[in-house]
Design a protein that fits this description.
- It is a single chain.
- By secondary structure, this protein is of the alpha/beta class.
- The protein folds into two domains: 82 residues, Double Stranded RNA Binding Domain; 86 residues, Arc Repressor Mutant, subunit A.
- Helix content is 39%, strand content 14%.
- The protein has eight helices and six strands; from the N terminus they run H-H-E-E-E-H-E-H-E-H-H-E-H-H.
- A four-stranded mixed beta sheet has the order 3-2-1-4, covered by helices on one side. It has a two-stranded parallel sheet with strand order 5-6.
- Helix 5 packs across helix 6.
- The longest helix has 12 residues.
Length: 192
C-alpha cells in the first residue's frame, strides 16, 4: 500500500508549478544568467550585460526597465538579466558572440583591433578578413553589433569620407564618440 501512495504523490508532483523566480535563482547560482550595470560613455550612460562567456549586449535606453525589455526581446533568454552595482574588471576583453556567424564574428573582432583615436573603412575590414567584396555585408554586421562602444564599430567609416551610421544614435552619435576619442572629424575626408 505505501508504494501506491508514493506513486500517487510522485504523479501529483507533475502538477506542481515551480515559483516564477526559481529558474532565475538557479541559473544565477550556477553563473548561467546575464547580469548588467551601466557604463558611462561620451554618449551618456549605456547598459552593459554580460555572462560567464563575456559581454553579451550594450544598449542605450532611458531606463533599466526598457533595457530589460529590449534585452529579453532580442536575446530570448529564459530569464531577465539581473542588475548589479558594477561592471566586472574584464568587461572590455571578453565578449559573448556565440549567436553570431563566423563571418559576423570575424568582422567584429577585426573592428576590435582598431586603436582608440583611429578609424578604418568598411572596405579595410572586408579586405582584412579575406572578403574584399563583402563591404556592404560588413556594414550590416557593424550596424547590428550587439556590443557597440566596447567593440568599436564607431571607428569604421565609409571610403567616400562620410562618417556613416551608428547603432547607438545615428551619425551624430558616431561623430560625438569619435571626437571624444580625439579623431579630427574635419580631416576625416582628406584622410581617405
Amino acid at each position: 500500500m505505501p508504494e501506491r501512495q508514493l506513486l500517487r504523490d510522485l504523479r501529483a508532483l507533475g502538477q506542481v508549478r515551480a515559483p516564477d523566480r526559481l529558474l532565475g535563482t538557479v541559473l544565477g547560482a550556477l553563473d548561467l544568467s546575464d547580469r548588467y550595470a551601466t557604463l558611462e560613455t561620451p554618449l551618456g550612460p549605456v547598459f552593459v550585460a554580460w555572462n560567464r562567456h563575456g559581454v553579451s549586449a550594450v544598449m542605450r535606453t532611458a531606463t533599466a526597465e526598457e533595457f530589460e525589455d529590449r534585452f529579453r526581446q532580442r536575446y530570448e533568454r529564459p530569464v531577465e538579466p539581473a542588475p548589479v552595482p558594477a561592471l566586472p574588471d574584464d568587461v572590455r576583453t571578453r565578449f559573448d558572440l556565440r549567436g553570431l556567424s563566423e563571418f559576423e564574428q570575424a568582422v567584429l573582432l577585426k573592428a576590435l583591433e582598431i586603436p582608440c583615436g583611429e578609424f578604418r573603412t568598411y572596405g579595410w575590414i572586408a579586405a582584412q578578413i579575406g572578403r574584399p567584396a563583402a563591404v556592404r555585408a560588413v556594414g550590416t554586421v557593424l550596424r547590428k553589433n550587439p556590443v557597440p562602444v566596447l567593440i568599436p564599430c564607431h571607428r569604421v567609416v565609409r571610403s567616400d569620407g562620410r562618417i556613416g551610421n551608428y547603432a547607438l544614435g545615428g551619425s551624430e552619435a558616431k561623430q560625438k564618440i569619435l571626437a571624444a576619442e580625439g579623431v579630427n572629424l574635419s580631416l576625416l575626408r582628406r584622410a581617405l
